[in-house]
């Protein structure tokens, strides 16, 4: 089970960075947008990973996988689009300057 262990740090960092934005403005809107983005990315991953595996463009050694699959695609493949959908907006939020109290 190598791939689940590789994915784990990405998921933990995404969760921590996303939670660090909890008190920033528009958290709920960002989470809703991230969830919608994640849904689209997971859908695309589902379609294209299954197609690429079906035509034998690549394969995974079974001993390195968790064994859970969606179609032909291992569940581990879906962690990266989920992380991207939440981590990128969270990082942008953390690196953006906070609005000054004068403009509020």
UniProtKB/TrEMBL annotation:
<feature type="transmembrane region" description="Helical">
    <location>
        <begin position="6"/>
        <end position="23"/>
    </location>
</feature>
<dbReference type="InterPro" id="IPR017825">
    <property type="entry name" value="Lycopene_cyclase_dom"/>
</dbReference>
<keyword id="KW-1133">Transmembrane helix</keyword>
<dbReference type="Pfam" id="PF18916">
    <property type="entry name" value="Lycopene_cyc"/>
</dbReference>
<keyword id="KW-0472">Membrane</keyword>
<feature type="transmembrane region" description="Helical">
    <location>
        <begin position="35"/>
        <end position="58"/>
    </location>
</feature>
<dbReference type="GO" id="GO:0045436">
    <property type="term" value="F:lycopene beta cyclase activity"/>
</dbReference>
<protein>
    <submittedName>
        <fullName>Lycopene cyclase</fullName>
    </submittedName>
</protein>
<feature type="domain" description="Lycopene cyclase">
    <location>
        <begin position="10"/>
        <end position="94"/>
    </location>
</feature>
<dbReference type="GO" id="GO:0016117">
    <property type="term" value="P:carotenoid biosynthetic process"/>
</dbReference>
<keyword id="KW-0125">Carotenoid biosynthesis</keyword>
<dbReference type="GO" id="GO:0016020">
    <property type="term" value="C:membrane"/>
</dbReference>
<comment type="pathway">
    <text>Carotenoid biosynthesis.</text>
</comment>
<dbReference type="GO" id="GO:0016872">
    <property type="term" value="F:intramolecular lyase activity"/>
</dbReference>
<keyword id="KW-0413">Isomerase</keyword>
<feature type="transmembrane region" description="Helical">
    <location>
        <begin position="78"/>
        <end position="98"/>
    </location>
</feature>
<keyword id="KW-0812">Transmembrane</keyword>
